[in-house]
Design brief:
Two copies of one chain form a homodimer. The first copy, chain A, has eight helices and 15 strands. Chain A is of the alpha/beta class. The first copy, chain A, has two domains: 155 residues, Medium-chain alcohol dehydrogenases, catalytic domain (Quinone Oxidoreductase, Chain A, domain 1, Alpha-Beta Complex); 149 residues, Rossmann fold. In chain A, strands 3, 4, 5, 6, 7, 14 and 15 form a seven-stranded mixed β-sheet that branches. A six-stranded parallel β-sheet of chain A has the order 10-9-8-11-12-13, sandwiched between helices. Chain A has a two-stranded antiparallel sheet with strand order 1-2. In chain A, helix 1 crosses helix 2 and helix 1 packs across helix 7. At the A-B interface, helix 6 and strand 13 of A face helix 6 and strand 13 of B.
Chain lengths: 334, 334
């Protein structure tokens, strides 16, 4: 017997803990070619909110169904195996679900993981896992920062935002964050290392605050939010700017805020590009090595909000969606 | 004494001939370092409409002022010179104005032009000039087409659209046009070589018509229109699609139609990029050579709407803006 969190109903608007329920899952036999994991860490990622909405399936993922375990990135240890590549004892990172045990066949972003003894295990779903990969790929592959450029990051206090800010700073850029509260803005400036952070709480005029923070305009916008924030930044680009579309959390829970300023992309000769970390699967080992080396040299810090136990998963997810957690939000099941 | 067309008032909404007036310009002395041209061909380009609106200056161009000659690309012959690089008799292409004579210093997209005796002179402001350059650069540098891909072009019957369609077809792509009337659509399919053309007149459901024309989705969108057309195409992209933002004629004369589908750029990992032909100045000779070679081999046709005399310029511009001209719209002054 193990437990899983299933979707109790499709959230409408702001997701709540009541949209989920924890259920017991009976043990089943292992199908040929599959393996079973005891899950150790569950990663919470805002992007999955998109696929919780009723009828939300698209070219990237199927929509989540009521009564089914909730999709997620999970780190587990193989405890039973009929698969040659996944021996018992292997640690794996997989796109599976909020569940204590998973039965997998090795497909769908599933890969064996080598872990270092001096690295907290949970960092492998965060800064050394998909979150760190997303930050790294978006900034370097899509954004292509040059020293001296101005980089703006939305949802700067989130998992990806805290990593992007540090990486861009290390690249010699001036790094501006956008976040919800002044308290979080202070933390981002003092602890994470952003140069300036604009917060929605005390600076409701985003356009004005951004102009003050970036008087010469924006070279790179790493966007996790979409909507109004994206549209405002588009109106303050420098020529040859790059807009890295990583996520659009503003529209996962409410109506789409349309973009009015796309003409600016022409006169500024700007590039706006969406990406998914999963397309860069083959570069993961190399990127992980770079991130791990930065961590070891203390050139990069991991900021984590760690929750415990499968029952905590819905709360953790809601906290992350609504800005109550800082850095990487995750649940440990040990 | 020569004549020029000046802005009589800032157009509001659809531009009309009454927004301009033809004035006599007194001869003046030539300042040191300048030269004077007798203009031969005036190019009409929709993009300039943007800068006719009151207060429209931006990072790319200054806004046009009432009583001042209207900005344009012009081909002229040097008739008086105090500039070492522009001897009398030289043909030059310049960003200047709707005027019979210009006094220039060689800056602002001004360059001497070598013309072939067997090429109609007016083609040097069209398919062999900025128009052809724009089509070529947008398609090859930004769009990067591969054989077998589906390329959609908006304002397909315009100067740039007729060239892009032919170039993409020659590249082995399936080429779909968007245009205003069924009559123009037939011409684009039969004479210009588009595979399928969707027209606003008989196919008001753009999304449905586009899905029928591109059942597997759109790889490249070469967009001259912006607004609703752009938003609709964004919702029907294939993965790794490229959106070439060349112009946004839909919003030069009316309110901006906002984009609602930018989330699709993420899941489709699509790239949307604006460009201006003027950034590729150094590649012009090479691109012109390629275009000229295609013309000579009969692998490319130039479609031109030729008007005569400076007084015809306002009418030509209005015809171009409102879809009454086909292909490259220009005025000859010979």
């Amino acid at each position: 017997m193990s437990r899983a969190v299933v979707l109790a109903r499709h959230p409408e608007g702001a997701v709540t803990e009541q949209d989920f329920s924890v259920v017991d899952v009976a043990d089943t036999g292992l199908p040929a070619g599959f393996f079973r994991t005891r899950n150790r860490v569950i990663s919470l990622d805002a992007g999955f909110r998109q696929w919780m909405t009723e009828g939300a399936g698209d070219n990237y993922l199927t929509g989540m169904q009521i009564g089914e375990p909730v999709q997620s990135i999970v780190l587990g240890e193989v405890i039973e195996s009929d698969h040659p590549d996944y021996a018992v004892g292997t640690l794996v990172s997989a796109r599976t679900a909020w569940e204590e045990q998973s039965v997998l066949d090795g497909s769908d972003l599933c890969s064996p993981l080598e872990v270092a003894s001096d690295v907290p295990l949970h960092q492998y779903v965060g800064i050394l896992g998909p979150t760190g990969m997303t930050a790294w790929i978006g900034l370097f592959e899509i954004g292509q920062p040059k020293p001296g450029e101005t980089v703006v990051v939305s949802a700067a206090g989130g998992a990806v935002g805290t990593v992007v800010g540090q990486l861009a700073k290390a690249e010699g850029c001036r790094v501006i964050g956008l976040t919800s509260t002044r308290d979080k803005a202070d933390w981002l400036e003092n602890d994470v290392g952003y140069d300036v952070v604009v917060d929605r709480e005390t600076q409701p005029d985003l356009a004005g605050a951004l102009r003050e923070a970036c008087p010469d305009g924006v070279d790179i916008f790493f966007d996790n939010v979409g909507g109004e924030a994206l549209d405002t930044v588009i109106s303050q680009l420098r020529e040859q700017a790059r807009l890295v579309l990583c996520g659009a959390i503003s529209q996962y829970e409410s109506a789409v805020q349309p973009l009015n300023n796309s003409w600016e992309l022409i006169t500024k000769r700007a590039r706006m590009e969406g990406f998914m970390f999963s397309d860069y699967f083959e570069s993961f080992p190399e990127i992980a090595e770079d991130l791990q080396s930065r961590l070891q040299r203390n050139a990069l810090k991991s900021f984590d909000a760690v929750y415990e136990g499968i029952e905590a998963t819905p709360r953790a997810f809601c906290d992350m969606m609504h800005g109550a957690s800082r850095g990487k939000c995750l649940v440990t099941l040990d």
